[in-house]
Amino acid sequence: MELRIPEQVRQALSKLRACGYEAYIVGGCVRDLLLGWEPDDYDITTSALPFETMRCFAGYHIIETGVKHGTVTAVIDGMPLEITTYRIDGQYSDNRRPDSVTFTRSLREDLARRDFTINAMAYSPSNGLQDYFGGQQDLKDQMIRCVGDPQTRFEEDALRILRAVRFSSVLGFGMEPTTAAALLTRRGLLVHIARERVQVELNKLLLGRDVGRVLREYTEVLCEVIPEIIPCIGFEQHSRYHLYDVWEHTVHTVERSPERLTVRLAMLLHDLAKPLTFSIEGGTGHFYSHQQKSADLAQEILKRLRYSGEITRRVVNLIRYHSVEFHGSAKAIKRWLGKLGEEELRELLLVQRSDLLGKDPSFWYELEELDENEQRINEIIAQNQCFTVAQLAVNGNDLREVGCTQGRLIGQLLEYLLGLVIDEECPNNREALLSRANQYLVNRKQADE
């Protein structure tokens, strides 16, 4: 078997071999190559000790990435390559990282410490594929399986619990039964994992091809990270619009949404407050103000998981406004374009579409209205119709020329003129706008007298 690898990687492997050491690419890059995918990066494992690796690459740019744990980065023709000595991990007292590592000259011992069989394979052009734990067969069987005892693997590093469900979502693989049972049993260990690392795995899971199945099968794992989901599970909505309980509706909306992180996060969190706002009138369920309350919960969750301010703001807005109605009005769409901007308004329509696809299919005819709203946005943008103050034919300097000198009043007047243009009560040309501005100032002065 021959795998195609970049020339820089071949050079690194050859260099180590020429110095008398074993060297292989290892882990995710081998898995991806066997799947026919292009790896994002390449990791190299070697029998050379760190100082031997640095001596071997004398003359190259070397970064002492983590020498204590055996890792050196060599930059070859602009490509950084992490090169790590074969090692055996010590005890994991914090359920995340080994307290110590012991270097070894055995590739098998190094691979035995890794998380899953599909990530525990090594390859070199000279020695071919090294697969001691059945990783290639598990790839063929589309199976996530721990190397060795699953309980031990998850106790060593609890992040592996999230990595398992993430791989299941991204690859579309099932979970080997003992591995699945162990991650459910040990899911409480996720409390030890840094929130930033949880965020990374959650993002990848949400963008996976099989996200719906994974959210259903491993809800309990997700609830360790976002316990606010728990009240949604099995919560009946008592609504003619809904076939599913709140959580199953949520899962449907996530899996039917486009693979865009802000949209999928919004769908995951958009109805969290429904159990908190539920009331029933005449046998029909109502969730008054659940949009705002769900947005508030989302704000807390995204902050807790260390999401950036920009992602948090966008997701919270999508949730807050996910039920707004445009009533087929171009004027309403222009106002929302001014409020959110084109990109975020288009995302809001994606959220509304996904939300609708999670409801009773007899209401999917409403998709036509969403299509019409999308078309109206296209027309407004193509025709360069005015929906922001910046697009007005006048600015603050123009208003000063007609006697409006207060900064706050200038802002109010520009917003007033924008409203007139959007409502088609005034054309967007300088003369007409200045005339309406003069009228506004006169009326204001008379009201003050």
UniProtKB/TrEMBL annotation:
Belongs to the tRNA nucleotidyltransferase/poly(A) polymerase family. SUPFAM superfamilies: Nucleotidyltransferase, Poly A polymerase C-terminal region-like. One of its GO terms (molecular function) is nucleotide binding. This is HDIG domain protein. InterPro entries: Bact_CCA-adding_enz_type3_sf (IPR050264), CCA-adding_enz_C (IPR032810), NT_sf (IPR043519), PolA_pol_head_dom (IPR002646), PolyA_RNA-bd (IPR032828). It comes from the Bacteria. CDD domains: NT_ClassII-CCAase. One of its GO terms (biological process) is tRNA processing. Its cofactor is Mg(2+). Residues 23-145 form the Poly A polymerase head domain. Keywords: Magnesium, Metal-binding, Nucleotide-binding, Nucleotidyltransferase, RNA-binding, Transferase, tRNA processing. It comes from [Clostridium] methylpentosum DSM 5476.
